[in-house]
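The authors assume throughout that readers already know how a fold can be written as discrete tokens. The format is easy to grasp once an entry is in front of the reader. For illustration, here is how one protein appears when written out as sequence plus structure tokens:
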Amino acid sequence: MPDIPWSTPTQAAPDAEVYVMASRFETATLAGAVKFFLKAPGIIGQIRKAPGAHGVALRARVFSRTFLTLSAWEDRDALYRFARSEPHRSSSRAAGAYMKESGFTFWTVRACELPLTWAEAERRLAEQKSNH
């Protein structure tokens, strides 16, 4: 299945510090993966319109039931405002019914370092998982 490549909704000043989140989701079933995948474009679209969003990408591995997200935000509050808004809020609650595992990691970078690589996101997610 195709990934949704990095897009930059709002360009940050190159020397600005941005708040980054990487997430990994694994669904319990293939049907759950299909549900997640079908919801993803709407959520990505929501991020692209969210105040304070500086970047977003999705890596979808539907048949492996695994999804990675990578996003950059003006600050932590911008990310949390998005997370509490619809349709993300309802979709994330509903996903709990078919999610096997999820992981999140957060860090900051200078905006000139965007877009980040999937290798960096996966490394940080693996570190986060090994620390728990």
In short: The longest strand covers residues 99-110. The radius of gyration is 14 Å.
